[in-house]
Amino acid sequence: MRHGKKVAHLGRTNTHRKAMLANMASSLIEHKRINTTVAKAKALKQFVEPLVTRSKEDTTHNRRVVFSALRNKYAVTELFRIVSEKVGDRPGGYTRIIKLGNRLGDNADMALIELVDFNEVYETDKPKKKKSRRRGAKKAAPAEVAAEVVTDAPEAQEAAPEAAPEAATESPAAEAAPAAETTAEEADEASSSEEENKA
Q: pLDDT for 110-152, tens place per residue?
């Protein structure tokens, strides 16, 4: 029975699995991203992330521990020089697994595993423009004018009730009287023209 044994065997013996993970980790450090199956990508993530954490502190002991795992001096140099500078402030999660679908030949689940800090597409360290929380931040001048109008509005409302009743009483009567005169004149002209036509 294999209760409590969580190592992904990947269909290989112990030595074969360690050699494969060392080669994949070296390729990942060198190329920054590789395509593989999802199971191998998950096993590689567990293998390489402690090595990246060790590379943050450049000591002889850490270099020897990483070299015993990777077995490639060029990958160790790349890890301690270039990769460790990029991941210096990241507290973990140095790799990302992106699923790509199934492989054509054997329908295996494929994935792309990459070092997070070396992907320019998902780059978040770029300086962002500071956004204003107000919606009309660019239209500041009309907002100021509106504020002035609102502050002047109570004075206008105090003056308006006094003038409004007079204007209301004068304007409808003044408008109605000329309209009534014009309609009466038109009616007289129409009746006189009808009488002339009859005669």
A: 999 999 989 878 765 555 666 667 776 555 555 555 555 555 5
The span from the CA of 104 to the CA of 166, in Å, is 88
Domain count, the chain: 2
Euclidean distance between CA atoms 47 and 21, whole angstroms: 7
Q: 155 and 87 share a domain?
A: no
Is residue 115 helix, strand or coil?
strand
**Residue 123 forms part of a structural domain:** no
Q: What is the pLDDT of residues 35-62, one digit of tens each?
A: 999 999 999 999 999 999 999 999 999 9
* Alpha-carbon gap, residue 47 to 70, rounded angstroms: 10
The answer to whether residue 105 is domain-embedded is yes
Q: How many Å apart are CA 189 and CA 184, to the nearest integer?
A: 9
Residue 128 — left, alpha, or beta (φ > 0 → left; ψ -120 to 50 → alpha)? beta
Q: Tell me the residue range of the domain where 196 lies.
A: 137-199
Instruction: For residue 52, give the 3-state DSSP assignment.
Output: helix
Contacts of 72 (CB under 8 A, 6+ apart): 22, 26
